[in-house]
Amino acid sequence: MSEPNASIAPESFRPPGSALPTKEFAMAGITLASFFYFGALAIIYNPFFRLQPEIKFPAFVVMQVIGLSLFIRAGALKELRINPWAVVFVQLFIVAIFRVKEIEVIGQGYVQIRFVYLGLLTMFTFVTSYIISSKVSVVAIRRSMLLFFVPISFQTVSRFGAMSDWELREVIRFGDFSFDSYQQVSLVLALSVLGLVSELRWSRRHLLMNSVLVAISCYFSYYIFQGLARGEAIAFVVAIGLIFAPRATLIALPFSATILSVFVARVDTSLTERLSGLLEGDYGMRDVLLLDSLAMLVERPWLMLIGGGINAFQAHYNLSSGLYPHNILVEACITGGMLMLFAIVWIYVRPIFMELVRAWAGRSTFEDRYVLAFAVFLVIVMLKSGSLVDMWTLTIFTCLFMKMGGHRADARVGRLQVKASRHTALVSSRF
User: Fold this and answer.
1) How many CA atoms are closer than 13 Å to the CA of 246, on its beta-carbon side?
2) Dist CA 268 CA 38 (whole Å)
3) d(CA 395, CA 389)
4) 193 near 150, Cβ under 8 Å?
5) Is the CB of residue 49 less than 8 Å from the CB of residue 152?
6) Which residues, 6 or more positions from 6, have their beta carbon under 8 angstroms from its beta carbon?
7) Higher-confidence residue: 213 or 416?
8) How many CB atoms lie within 10 A of CB 287?
9) How far is CA 334 from the centre of its chain?
10) Torsion region of 421: left, alpha or beta (phi above 0 gives left; psi -120 to 50 gives alpha)
11) Exposed/middle/buried for 422, CB within 10 Å: 0-12, 13-18, 19+?
12) How confident is the model at residue 258 (pLDDT cuts 50, 70, 90)?
């Protein structure tokens, strides 16, 4: 008599203590892992977090390591799929980090170790996020972020005037690297709103909850449009439109009323002044930096082959660290050549276009559109002010990009099924 198959044997055949964890227990572990991993962003993006600037980044890394450990415990490494372009990106980025150049600016000294430190931090978030991509849950990510970012958003709007005046610019700081507070305010508010509206439930039973979510979302949206960050505001409008495209009539009225109230109540907002500046050619020096970047590539075409290192642009023009190309694709080409550029496009841009095709064909769910909107928002921000040195805002969410378009396992299976069905139909037609 053959022995029972262990893979399908009932519990009575399993040795004591070998029972698999329940689905609820596994989901609780994923939620806890997401809580630590993505909650680490609250340390970086909360200007009111009472930690010394030099402690913020180590605390950020510690929380990520805890979350990563929990994901590995849940089996993230066992289900990991290696993407060749992810390997190429990591290799080129590490090479670029250690090709960093010494910059001497009058009145400010920038040493190599700071660029190396922040570059390694960015690479750390990319690798860890890629590792957890097989086990991460979109719902767990969203709710972990809401748990942190919504309180930060309420805290932020209570001192909105001070932050918009750059009062807290020096609070979010590490060494000689600082962050524009008004951009961080809009980023946190926008991510909070995207998470809140994605929790809406389309049934009468959830009318009260939906009303609260829409009210809070409109409240935060008001301050997004009252702020100074025009790029984040434009990216936010695009992202909201992507989420609610099929249900635009259900959400258009409250959000339109919010936007309209801004321009009616205070036509001379800082944002409207900055948006009108776009028509007058005021791009905040981004056009100058972009043209200088392209000129650098023309003058030194070999950079497109092997790159020039993590701060090649600043070293070439003898600029401070804050005067980078402000476009992650252009900077990638200068830093690591066309291979690094193509790797970033393959990992972060290509999935967006493939997911847009699915959404246009009506094959995307509401959850898919949330991931799409989230990704589009981050990529637009990176195209107008992104930097390879501190792109952890993007790299920490690599796991979400790996669930989109051609990166997804089910998308590959779907294509194989279509090819198989076509082959079967072709064979049947011949006989």
Assistant:
1) 13
2) 37
3) 11
4) no
5) no
6) 13, 14
7) 213
8) 12
9) 22
10) alpha
11) exposed
12) low
